[in-house]
Design goal:
By secondary structure, the protein is mainly alpha-helical. The chain has helices spanning 5-34, 54-86, 92-121.
Length: 123
């Protein structure tokens, strides 16, 4: 069964119309979720900065690496150490990697703690 040109055009028009209605319905929600305005994002992932500033972006990146990537990588390195041990291979490189990633995570948390306490003391 072959659709005529008119039917294809009608289907495309109906699809575009439905998509337009859907976008119009969700656009206010999307724009509200992305806009922090001029207020600082206190209590959020970015302390004392708005998400629109580069400093906030860098702080988010550091927090993400220190609080998410490094601990997950350390856990994966521990798993790989166990797998290597079960197969009779050396585990030192995986253990050192896990320890190093935990040190990176701990140092970023320590620096974050110092910054928070340092900014609270400065008036």
């Amino acid at each position: 069964m072959k659709l005529s040109s008119w039917e294809k055009r009608r289907q495309c028009f109906v699809l575009a119309f439905l998509l337009t209605i859907l976008v119009i319905q969700f656009f206010p929600l999307i724009s509200y979720a992305q806009n922090l305005g001029a207020a600082p994002a206190t209590g959020q992932a970015v302390q004392g900065q708005t998400a629109a500033q580069p400093e906030g972006t860098v702080l988010n990146l550091v927090n993400w690496v220190g609080n998410v990537i490094a601990p997950v990588g350390a856990a994966l390195a521990v798993v790989m150490a166990v797998v290597a041990y079960s197969q009779g291979r050396g585990v030192a490189r995986w253990a050192v990697t896990a320890g190093g990633l935990l040190v990176v995570s701990g140092l970023t948390r320590l620096i974050e703690f110092w910054i928070q306490n340092g900014t609270a003391g400065v008036q």
